[in-house]
Amino acid sequence: MKTEKIISKQQTKTNTNISNNIFYLINSFFHSKYISLKKPKDLWGGIVLLCTFLLMIDAAYLAYILRNDFSKFNIERMNSTLGLTFIVIAGILSLFKVSFFIYTLYRYIKYKPVASVKDKELPTCTVIVPAYNEGKQVWDTLMSLVDSDYPKEKLQLIAIDDGSADDTWKWMQNAKKSLGNRLSIYQQPENQGKRHALYRGFNLGKGDIFITVDSDSIVKSDTLRNLVSPFISNKQCGAVAGNIRVLNTKKGLLPKMLNVSFALSFDFVRSAESSLNSVLCTPGALAAYKSDAVFACLPEWINQTFMGHPSDIGEDRALTNMILKQGYHVLFQRNAYAYTNVPEKYRGLYKMFIRWSRSNVRENIEMSKYVFKNFKKDTKIGTRLLFISQSLEIIMSYPFLLFMIFFVLTHPLLFISSTIVSILILSTFPAIFYAKHYNLSESFWAYTYSILYTFSLFWITPYAIATANKRGWLTRDLPEIK
């Protein structure tokens, strides 16, 4: 089918040749199908990966040489009140994070996706596709949805142009001509933001389940039926998060890195959250909501404000939060895939992360207002642990930023070597996880991504906290290659 062809172009064959020899691994980067020396972009990718490993090897060797300096540094910190206090706090937090990781791993093992139900059991669904300056991509998105293995009579498809300045509306009209009554298209009088486009779709929708799909995403033929099946098997289910992978992996190094990162944040983290019935965020790229749960909080959601200003970001996290607050279960379906475009340049990447971080700050504040109350009938321990873990990351961002600055200014070599060695250790799990579930050669991007994030994106959370009241999508007007 056309949808499968679109998706297959973004995937690579799994490389099963595993070797413990580091030189063999580096050599395999340059000779695998994934990184071919014949293509300049792939050659550049191979060089980046090679430099990543050389950097980590050098850092490990430097840390070994400076081991006595590390001991001296630790002794100095323990002999000062401030230093000892920081070490104790860092030790407690590290113990919590390790314990929480083990707990998350246990919950991940317990997780199992819900199998697709039969056609007669499938609920009626309204799929809403908000679009802004997507051009032809919106056509591909709509065609992939129409190709879904879902009963036509149970599927309502709505596309809403949010006042685009390009030819998005033309492509929607072309899709309408091709699909006829299977698609309804609407145009906002002006650009009002994604939340308002979805709001219009919710009010137009007639299905028992609302499905939201970003206009730069492609779904597999079985995605929709897999996504909504938990609503049938679990009557307390209020929302379901889809499994998001990267569509534009061939267009740059950042998409390759994010593809590995997404595998951990969705396949691993959300699987664990789902086993606790408490997925904290259903992604805008692919999510499903019980219509009753949506309408129960729709007025609050569309009129949501933060520090006196209308909220125009984080609409997915906000809706998830409001549904959790009602006592519903929020689940994850690993077998419901959507492939979406991600930023290909650093500028787009950090702006996307700022938007996400601001939303996390805002919604954690909102979550704190109900999570320790009796907001649902069944156990609330898992939800509270997830909240505490995420809140600690936000709260401790400034103390650790200050310590990092102090460490860099006083012991730059110790900082660089210890940080990169830590990356080598901590990034091994996501690399192994991705290699096991997807592709060996691609898994090494986990190390490169961690280095990139640690040294060039560390400021995101502190900045997002300081500017949490600011509005703006940030990336909506950036030019994209279609």
TrEMBL record:
* UniProt-annotated location(s): Cell membrane
Sequence intervals crossing the membrane: 43-64, 84-106, 385-407, 413-434, 446-466
Taxonomically, the superkingdom here is Bacteria
Can you cite a GO biological process for this protein? hyaluronan biosynthetic process
**Chief site of localization:** membrane
**One of the record's GO molecular function terms:** hyaluronan synthase activity
Q: What InterPro entries does UniProt report for this protein, alphabetically?
A: Nucleotide-diphossugar_trans
Q: Does the keyword Glycosyltransferase apply?
A: yes
Instruction: Provide the alphabetized UniProt keywords.
Output: Cell membrane, Glycosyltransferase, Membrane, Transferase, Transmembrane, Transmembrane helix
Gene Ontology CC annotations of this record: plasma membrane
Q: What is this protein called?
A: Glycosyl transferase family 2
Organism listed in the record? Flavivirga aquatica
